[in-house]
Fold:
Amino acid sequence: MTAMLKPRGKHHHGALRRALLDAVADIVLEAGPDAVSLRECARRAGVSHSAAAPHFGDLRGLLTSFATEGNLRLAVAMRDAVAALPPDADARARLAATGHGYMAFARNNPAHFRLMFRTDLLAATDPAWQHAVQASWAPLAEAMAGHVPGADGRALRARLALAWAAVHGFCALRAEGAGGDLWNPEDRAQEVANDLIALVVAACAMPDDG
Structure:
């Protein structure tokens, strides 16, 4: 795909910031997170490297801002999925909804999904990024606490790890095109996704919950 360069000198502050973040997404989808450079993002946005640098400081700052945006979008996707449930939905349904929201985010934001977990490329001490990570973690943590209210710290951590690893792993394998007949064609992928989430929810129940 050939990138369309923006006319030089036509960006106001907010528009240039958006153009640079959009350039990150394009490059990630074309060549992967390691291919992103501040200079190439600036070129695609139609500005000089020196004009782009003040918005993010350096490449790590740019990637961290992109990952921050991704985590905030993930938080919204999960909360929207829970909010779409009927008012009388039980704890199992709310936990399942977080998984469906996570999968929807990964499907609709493939570039963010591929980059936002590459902590080797990010500024882990950035306050905005830390806040966004907590925001994206909260829907799962809240739903799991409601699903297993009697779980101690160790049991809760194990269930959170299981739920996250299973749903994220499914999304990652799908994003990389791995798995073959396991979840192709698309209707089979949706079937597997639904069944996977149901199994995770059942596995996370406390032993006396059946």
Q: What stands out?
A: Residues 59-83 form the longest helix (25 residues). DSSP finds nine helices and no strands in the chain. The mean pLDDT is 91. The CA atoms of residues 29 and 171 lie 15 Å apart.
